[in-house]
Amino acid sequence: MKPKQAFHIFLFLSFYIFLSLAKENVRTAIPQQFGEAPKFYNAPECPSIIHATNNLFDDDSNYNNNNNYICSDEAIHVAMTLDVTYIRGSMAAILSTLQHTSCPQNVFFHFVASASANAPLRTTIASSFPYLKFQIYRFHDTTVAGLISTSIRSALDCPLNYARSYLANLLPLCVGKVVYLDSDLVLVDDIAKLAATPLGDNKVLAAPEYCNANFTSYFTPTFWSNPSLSLTFANRKACYFNTGVMVIDLDRWRAGDYTTKIEEWMELQKRMRIYNLGSLPPFLLVFAGNIAPVDHRWNQHGLGGDNFRGLCRDLHPGPVSLLHWSGKGKPWARLDANRPCPLDALWAPYDLLKPPFSFDS
Fold it and tell me: How does it sit in the membrane (predicted)?
């Protein structure tokens, strides 16, 4: 190869790499800017966690100096996924969690994010919550890319939606119990109450159950017409539960290798279509009818409407500790479009987004 040709090839490859990196940066950049949340302090009766620090560190950092905190049973461990699309909702969920708990300094957040978006999300969280104790774990799309089947709504096909199935693998082994929360919700009660949900002698997770829902609708006729599949629920009073709010015993999850059990159902779904939704049905197949109960007040779900039109909905009867905009409609999108639902006004006070005119202030 002549030197001139080699030089041209070098220029072409360099330009290609530059464009690829620029495209990735655009894809993972966070266009919004958020205000700083106030610092919240523990009540006098909160348990003390010795040698706890409020250092910020990511999954490449050595967190040995923070083991007293991250491994503490006194800490309230909360797991959430983070992505650029839903970061505004995540910020509101974090703020509401801290604002309504008696021991905010004892809350430790475990965030799972796509590897490509790790850095900008970490910066955003740290800027708005400089006192927050958290760790970010990289989730590689390739972990589930070959297992995901198309569902009724494209947003449900995002690999990060399946990260909740891998928490036991991602979080440190010393973390034995975690509260998993979706990004489209706010708490109006103390998360410590939810975290204290008893799991009994053998239950792996706890969540509010909705036995009045049409459970058969979550699976296809192909599933129900196959006795070897439909017998999965034999001897189980299987009821629908929403996976956006769960209390999970990670030790029992690891011991039972439940990630593999979920993956096996996803592999079957690739061969024969047995459900139409995304990450929910595998959870139902593995756990429905065998979870610890949680009061319905801890997941007033469905406020985002259905998966097609996202129409406004009312609260379920009874008290409320957590509002959840599951479904197509998200409160921040409806507020921005000046077409809010009445209950979206309950989400708005937790919105940390800076208005455009204040970006330079």
Answer: Single-pass type II membrane protein
